[in-house]
Design a protein that fits this description.
- 2 copies of one chain form a homodimer.
- Chain A is of the alpha+beta class.
- Chain A folds into 2 domains: 8-150, PurM-like, N-terminal domain (60s Ribosomal Protein L30, Chain: A, 2-Layer Sandwich); 158-322, Phosphoribosyl-aminoimidazole Synthetase, Chain A, domain 2 (Alpha-Beta Complex), CATH 3.90.650.
- The first copy, chain A, is 29% helix and 23% strand.
- Chain A contains 8 helices and 14 strands.
- The first copy, chain A, has helices at residues 15-29, 69-83, 103-119, 175-183, 201-208, 223-235, 250-259, 281-289, and strands spanning 41-42, 49-57, 63-64, 67-68, 87-98, 123-132, 140-150, 166-169, 213-217, 239-242, 273-276, 298-303, 311-314, 320-322.
- In chain A, the strands form 3 sheets. In chain A, strands 9-11-8-12-10-13-14 form a 7-stranded mixed beta sheet.
- In chain A, strand 3 and strand 4 form a beta hairpin.
- In chain A, helix 2 (69-83) runs parallel beside helix 3.
- At the A-B interface, helix 1, strand 1, strand 2, helix 2 and strand 5 of A face helix 1, strand 1, strand 2, helix 2 and strand 5 of B.
- Strand 2 of chain A pairs antiparallel with strand 1 of chain B, so a sheet runs across the interface.
């Protein structure tokens, strides 16, 4: 492209827009399904149940240790399908880019998105770009919709959860939240921590054959505490978490202590929370612990009865603390 | 909802977000497929080829005579599938809303979107909302992805177009562009004109059985002239349009004369451009003219040879004018 920065003309359906699409989007996202001249695209699907999900991405800064808005858009969508038991096949991509945005950065982010998509085995089938007048738009927002396929008859969901079930997490929580926080200059902190952002598909597929698997979710916005509250609200059962069992990395714990955050409410982008029948817990942990991203998998709690339908954390000191549903936003634009 | 305006807490994954989703999105978009607690949703599909499309919407003002950003998001997506020969089955919806946005207006727009979806026979299967800090975000942006089904083996596309084919339009062009323009106070003009925004599915389905149907497109961003240029670029063939045959309403013509716009470059949101074999033109026009939105359907030009691969307009006075590909944006945030 001749231009170094995005102008309104890149969004008008004419020549500049065609150049932008051809030289950035088509180049980095090329695959046999992506027809940038078509209104709509045929997506051949393997046998199975068709599953969809959608997500918007507004993370700031756009690049952070361990990822960027492009990889996040791919992993967020692949992961929402994965925890529903599905394998992502296609993505659609919406881009909202502000007039004046640097073309070199857009190119870098789209290239990164394309790499993440290829690694996750998912093809970008359709896209759309809108250019927002300068002063609106905060740089770049993305939205992705994923189409996936899962084995028919798979019954995973909040409604499958039973009293006595065990709650597992595939790795330490809060890395993504803290990595993004440290990448923002406003906090005046520096650290080596990287976001955990990754495809969780290997982790979820490792559990799919397991008798007794009830429910999986990736603890993104609102973190582990929000997933636990979702379980309580949907089932009417209590949840107990054991503070000493929830894996949290030391730098995450330190930053949270300095800034007054609770790591249990911070976003992860590459972890899975699974609820399994008690007799399945050992097999699930064993499967995860043998995997690249599952070495620190841990049993962190259990589902209780109806008598106390709250999320209760048993603390290190033997006390109890109720984890309320999130009210204040600890950290906007985290994903 | 207790709050009259959107706050950042409505985007944090916690209680406020749940209230927003429950009281606005779930209420207006309710259908058996919409499970607001799920990460991903199973969408049963009828037999046929699965087709996807995606679009972003940034129109200003958000409400205008004949439509709003909600109806536009539904019709834009339904129409992209319709011109590809497909019937929309499901939508996913991404909402980017700015902190401080009026809840009553969001409610009105989502209600309008829900009505348009029900009328078009399409279910909202999944959604996501992000709240943008005040000063970013320009109020409200939407992105929709549509999943549709079409008859297997249907071959419609730019590559099917042949020399001698006829070009038809289903009704007057430029109404949407001018209606949105007049709704912006900046122009100081007032008019009775309404946007043509509508589902074009009845118009496209009326032609699907027709032997000799080559290609259909809804002339949105960049208008009729941009569709004609797309044909030239994809086929290497020339296109000739007859100025006196292109239907343009008088108020559209007047506003364009005052402001110096060319109606052929203005967006329509409820029209279809069809390219058909010469022997199919009469049947196609006959089918359209018997329909509610097709009364003013007209044959507007034809596809020529390779010798002059341009879009040429034969003027009222017998002259010729080349319609170049759009460079400047005549009107940003039109859809």
């Amino acid at each position: 492209m001749e231009d170094s920065h995005i102008s309104l003309a890149h969004g008008n359906g004419g020549r500049f827009m065609r150049e932008l699409i051809g030289e950035i989007f088509a180049r980095h996202l090329a695959n046999p399904r992506l027809d940038v001249d078509a209104d709509a695209v045929h997506i051949p699907l393997p046998a199975g149940e068709v599953v969809v999900t959608t997500d918007g991405f507004t993370v700031q800064p756009l690049e952070f240790p361990g990822g960027d808005i492009g990889t996040l858009a791919v992993h967020g969508t692949v992961n929402d399908l994965a925890v529903a038991g599905a394998r992502a096949q296609y993505l659609t991509l919406n881009v909202f880019v502000e007039e004046g945005f640097e073309v070199a950065m857009l190119d870098r982010l789209v290239a990164s998105l394309g790499r993440a998509a290829r690694e996750a085995g998912v093809a970008v089938a359709a896209g759309d770009t809108k250019v927002l007048p300068r002063g609106e738009g905060g740089g770049l927002y993305l939205a992705t919709t994923g189409v996936g396929i899962r084995r028919p008859g798979l019954r995973l969901g909040l409604s499958s959860i039973r009293e006595g079930d065990r709650i597992l997490v595939s790795g330490p929580v809060g890395d993504h939240g803290v990595a993004v926080m440290l990448a923002r200059e406003q906090f005046g902190l520096r650290g080596e921590l990287r976001s955990d952002a990754a495809s969780v598909l290997p982790l979820t597929e490792a559990l799919l054959g397991l008798e007794g698997l009830r429910f999986m979710r990736d603890p993104t916005r609102g973190g582990l505490a929000t997933v636990a509250n979702d379980i309580v609200r949907a089932t009417g059962l209590g949840v107990t978490l054991e503070e000493e069992r929830v894996p949290v990395r030391d730098p995450v714990r330190s930053v949270c202590e300095i800034l007054g955050y609770d790591p249990l409410y911070l976003a992860c982008e590459g972890r899975v929370v699974a609820v399994v029948a008690p007799e399945a817990a050992e097999a699930a942990l064993g499967a995860w612990r043998g995997m690249a991203n599952g070495g620190e998998a841990a049993p962190i709690g259990s589902v209780g009865g109806r008598a106390r339908a709250r999320v209760v954390m048993r603390t290190w000191l033997g006390g109890e603390r109720v984890l309320e549903e999130l009210e204040d936003d600890p950290l906007p634009r985290i994903c």
